[in-house]
Amino acid sequence: MSIYDIKVKNNQNEEVSLERYKDKVLLIVNTATGCGFTPQYSGLQELYNKYQEQGFEILDFPCNQFGNQAPGNDVEINSFCTLNYNTTFPRFAKIDVNGKNESPLFTFLKNEKGGILGDNIKWNFTKFLIDRSGNVIDRYAPTDKPENIEKDIANLL
Hints:
Elements: E1 7-9, E2 15-17, E3 25-31, H1 40-51, E4 56-62, H2 74-85, H3 104-112, E5 127-130, E6 136-140, H4 150-156
Parallel strand pairs: 3-4
Antiparallel strand pairs: 1-2, 3-5, 5-6
C-alpha cells in the first residue's frame, strides 16, 4: 500500500485521492484553531508561499481530539484560517488521528513513522514530511516550528 492509494474528504465533503499529489513533496499536518500552536499557521503559509511553485504542498487536516481545540465545522475552520492566517494550502475535512475512527491516512503515517513516545499522535500540529515518491521521510512534534523544518523540505525539492 502507498500513500497514493488513500482517499480523504476535502472540506466540501468530496472524496479526494492522494494520488493527486503524486510527484510533490508533502507536509501533512493535523491542526486546530484554538491551540497554543495555532500561530504555526503563519509559518506554514510562509513555507507554502516560498516552495509551492517547486512542487511543495501542505495538507491540513483539522482534528478536535485534543482538548476540543477545533470545535467548529469545516466551513468555520476554513474561514478562521483564511481570515486570521491568510492560508491558501489545501484544507480537508475534520478527522480523527487516533482511535477507532482514525483516518486511514494517519494510520498509514503512524505505521511508517512512529513517534518517540509511541505511535499515537500526541497533540495538534504533528507534521509528516513525504518525498516525491510517497515515502514518509520524517515526523515532527507539535513543538517543531515550520521554519525549523524548512531545510528538510528544501532538501527534498
